[in-house]
Amino acid sequence: MKKWVGVSIVFVIMCVWLLGTPAFSQQKFRIGTGIDPVYSNFYVAEALGLYKKYGVDAELKLFSRGGEALDALMAGEIHVTSNAEYPNVIAVEKNPEVVLIGLSCVAPHTMKLTARAEIKKPEDFLGKKIGSAIGSVTDYCFDKYFEKYRVDKSKVTYVNVAAPESVPLLDKGDIMAFFFWEPWPSKAIEVSGSKVHILGSSAQLGVYAAKLFMAVPRTYAEKNPEVIKGFLKAMAEAGEYIHKNPEESYKLVAKKIPTLTPETIGKMAADFSHRVRFLKEDLKNLDDVATWVVSKGRIKNVPDWTKAIETKYLKAVDPKAVE
User: Which part of the chain is CATH 3.40.190.10?
Assistant: First the structure.
């Protein structure tokens, strides 16, 4: 009996040792994204075989939205995803295992304030209902818009809606505006025609420029640094390919998002940057959103960015991409 107990203990120790060594990196590197052109470099890297080129045995899984992929990462189901500031701020505050390693996309004009035709200026929102995913980046954009243009938001009714619901609600007049990302603004124009119009993108209105930050599990990254660096190399090369070969890239992206044509993707992604980086201005984005989230009482403190951000992997790949 003692002999078998001893063997069992040795077996357990061996398993633990293997999980903590680089050999563990031979498992599939599971990537999770939403279904959106902002994830184009993830799709293009897969299509061009760039993950494999840099020694990463990757498996790409699509989620209905990026937030679901982030939940999966925190549950230990995937190894990397990318999201805008708000969900990342919540994630790093909730779970110290989540660490941000760089940007995958800057999309300054993807968020658009779309309204009924009778809404022409900021003060027209007074006494009206607006559609917003409460506690999300859409909520943030509306708050910043009303703050910038000195609209008393207590006199505006926020209706909690999901992005797909916003188009029919706006068409029927149940809400007077929404501040969602593409393709929903374009869908609203397609459905409602002259009944609605776009007042401007979040960047044009001076309230926000969307940035997607890549998150990984801290312990996994520390044990498998070469996998993380290989992944970042693939992402960087995919980003450069997109900028140099946009039309070919949009065709590859359309294979992942069959509901959109390459032409539609081209229009949506015309202003996107997929160059992997982490600059001081990007940290400011995170900090601004985190400060707003604290003001809403959703977290107690702004995260300690010295712990929540790790740029050593990106620095090793491209020192110029980090400030």
Answer: 2-108+210-321, 111-201
The per-residue pLDDT for range 222-242, each reduced to its tens digit, is 999 999 999 999 999 999 999
Asked: is 2-108+210-321 a CATH 3.50.50.60 domain? The reply is: no
Long-range contacts of 293-299 (CB under 8 A, 24+ apart): 293/86, 293/89, 293/90, 296/135, 298/90, 298/135, 299/89, 299/90, 299/93
Q: What are phi and psi of 233, to 5 degrees?
A: -65, -45
- The topology (CATH level 3) of 111-201 is D-Maltodextrin-Binding Protein; domain 2 (3.40.190)
d(CA 160, CA 141) in angstroms, rounded, equals 14
Q: Residue 256 in contact with residue 35, Cβ under 8 Å?
A: yes
Contact 272, 107 (CB under 8 A): yes
Distance CA 34, CA 61 (A): 9
Within 8 A by CB and 6+ apart from 45, the residues are 51, 234, 235, 237, 238
Candidates 93, 171, 174, 184; CA nearest to 138 is 184
Reported confidence tier of residue 134, pLDDT bands at 50, 70, 90: confident
Amino acid (1-letter code) at residue 17: W
Q: What is the DSSP string of 99-129?
A: EEEEEEEEETTSEEEEEETT--SGGGGTT-E
Q: What is the pTM of this model?
A: 0.85
